[in-house]
Design brief:
This protein is an alpha/beta fold and about 375 residues long. It has 2 domains: about 5-245, Type I PLP-dependent aspartate aminotransferase-like (Major domain) (Aspartate Aminotransferase, domain 2); about 245-375, Aspartate Aminotransferase, domain 1, CATH 3.90.1150.10. The chain is built from 14 helices and 12 strands. A 7-stranded mixed beta sheet has the order 1-7-6-5-4-2-3, sandwiched between helices.
């Protein structure tokens, strides 16, 4: 089946003969046993729940993985993946990451004895220079948040294979509709399901998809032990969101392309970061490994005062955290998503007081641009 069809029909209730078009919500903490020695699939919902298992099967199918694990948030998924490493291990990570990832690595991973070395993962030579005998993995966010830097997944995968390293890819911004990291050589794919997968700014979720069954089992073990699992109702909401993933991503992509072109023509806008612009340094690499550019734009205006003014003046676009929902949201990375990142590191990556991040929704593009116009000009 084609991707669009899988989004809809993989969400049918395929395991229980009720005839339900929408998979049921098994809102049960525990399941009765037939006998002491019965080998039941379901016994306690922290271990597995039919609704969660159904979502995990859909995500494994969409990402072309061997198995998936659903978590309470994207950060819970990321924290679980980092539990694969032991004291003394090193991980190489993209130098322009979501602020929450940097907070996790700099505090909890560090406390556990895992060192994270940062590199421009778009530069193979820079990654190579950081590989040591204790390096165990490469963690890539592509495109990155918020500067939309691009990493060649296939090239990094080749390097990882040569050195026996895991390749972990955060695919939140493009989703499996536009990009399939496992097909390109990734071992684990992570999503903040809160974003495009759920798609309606009403659910928090995370997913990790593994290319190999044994890795999926390790992640299931970590999840059932630490307990940051996704509830049955949230699994249902995410499954429902996935049904419209393909058509939403097309509209996000279309609207963002128009908004980016408009922003490029504004005198008060000094820089526009959008993957679909031919001037974007990662444009050609992205065309090679994905089928679309997504709905995210970052742009720099002429002054910090104007940036703050835009945040106050937007009306259709809402000034709020998060991204990937049907509503357009604008964010101020310097005080929101990357507030915990040291100022020197922020400035080096281009995250300054003039930068705004726009998650372009599915509203009529004329209304989005009119709102940007009245707020900027």
């Amino acid at each position: 089946m084609k991707f669009n069809t899988v989004c809809l029909h993989a969400a049918k209730d395929m395991t229980h003969s009720t005839g339900a078009v929408a998979a049921p919500i098994y809102q049960s903490a525990t399941f009765a046993r037939e006998s002491v020695d019965s080998n039941q699939v379901y016994s306690y919902s922290r271990l597995q729940n039919p609704t969660r298992e159904h979502l995990e099967n859909i995500m494994a199918h969409l990402e072309e993985g061997a198995g998936a694990v659903a978590f309470s948030t994207g950060m819970a998924a990321e924290a679980a993946v980092m539990e694969l490493f032991s004291q003394g291990d090193r991980v190489i990570a993209s130098d322009d990451l979501y602020g929450g990832s940097i907070r996790l690595f700099g505090n909890f991973s560090k406390k556990n004895g895992v060192t994270v070395d940062y590199a421009d993962t778009g530069n193979i030579g820079e990654i190579k220079s950081l590989i040591t005998p204790t390096t165990k993995a490469i963690f890539v966010e592509t495109p990155t948040n918020p500067m939309l830097k691009v990493t060649d997944i296939a090239e990094v995968s080749k390097l990882a294979r040569e050195h026996g390293l895991l390749l972990i890819v955060d695919n939140t911004f493009l989703t499996p509709y536009f990009q399939l990291p496992i097909r390109l050589g990734a071992d684990i794919v992570i999503h903040s399901g809160t974003k495009y997968l759920c798609g309606h700014n009403d659910t928090m979720a995370g997913v990790a998809v593994a290319a190999r069954a044994d890795m999926a089992e390790k992640l299931h073990y970590i999840n059932k032990t630490t307990g940051a699992l996704l509830s049955p109702f949230d699994c249902f909401l995410m499954t429902r969101g996935i049904k419209t993933l393909a058509i939403r991503m097309e509209r996000h992509n279309q609207n963002a392309a128009e908004a980016a072109k408009w922003l490029c023509r504004q005198k008060k806008v000094k820089k526009v970061y959008y993957l679909g612009l031919e001037t974007h340094p990662g444009h050609e690499t992205l065309k090679k490994q994905s089928t679309g550019f997504g709905g995210m734009i970052s742009f720099e205006v002429e002054s910090a005062e104007l940036a703050l003014s835009v945040l106050k003046k937007v009306k259709v676009i809402q000034f709020a955290e998060s991204l990937g929902g049907v509503e357009s949201l604008i964010t101020y990375p310097v005080t929101q998503t990357h507030a915990d990142v040291p100022e020197e590191k922020r400035e080096k990556n281009g995250i300054n007081a003039r930068l705004l991040r726009l998650s372009v929704g599915i509203e009529d593009i004329c209304d989005i641009i009119a709102d940007l116009d009245q707020a900027i000009n």
